[in-house]
């Protein structure tokens, strides 16, 4: 039997009908949040990372039913339509996007970091990104991109 959950996704109140055993990643993709990528479904790759009440979680390991009443952020919600979040701009500027499959998870992990720590050290950036596996970039460019975004956000007071 489907159940109803009430969530706020990217600032919009939503009601989703979900099956008791459905994963949050599956429901978000079905509802059109296709930035949520599913790589492994076992909690290992981090590509399905979303923010739940501001905390990065791997949405393949969370039942949608457990998200009832929470606020969820996906990459679609990082910036208004046709605009880019400073992290997205910095990822482009630093060549931190190659195939792009890991990028939504990296962006949200980085956003969670910068929301709580606007001036992270390189070690803190690496730790924040460590849960998201990337086969393309070697991590150097994403780390540089997060540092650059942090600088711009501090300068711009964002
Ligand atoms: S798909 Fe969720 S961690 Fe890999
Ligand atoms: S850019 Fe391809 S997996 Fe990271």
The N- to C-terminal Cα distance equals 44 Å
What is the ordering of alpha helices and beta strands? EEHEEEHHHH
Strand arrangement, major sheet: 2-1-5-3-4
Bound compounds: FE2/S2 (inorganic) cluster
Main β-sheet: number of strands, strand sense, barrel status?
A: 5 strands, mixed
Rg over alpha carbons: 15 Å
Strand residue content: 15-25%
- Annotated CATH architecture of the largest domain: Roll
Query: How many beta-strand elements?
Result: 5
Mean pLDDT reading: 97
Question: CATH fold name of the largest domain, please?
Answer: Ubiquitin-like (UB roll)
What keywords describe this structure?
single chain, 158 residues, alpha+beta, Ubiquitin-like (UB roll), DNA polymerase, domain 1, five-stranded mixed sheet, 5 helices, 34% helix, binds FE2/S2 (inorganic) cluster
Description:
- The protein is α+β, with helices and mostly antiparallel strands and 158 residues long.
- The protein contains five helices and five strands, in the order ββαβββαααα.
- One FE2/S2 (inorganic) cluster binds next to loops.
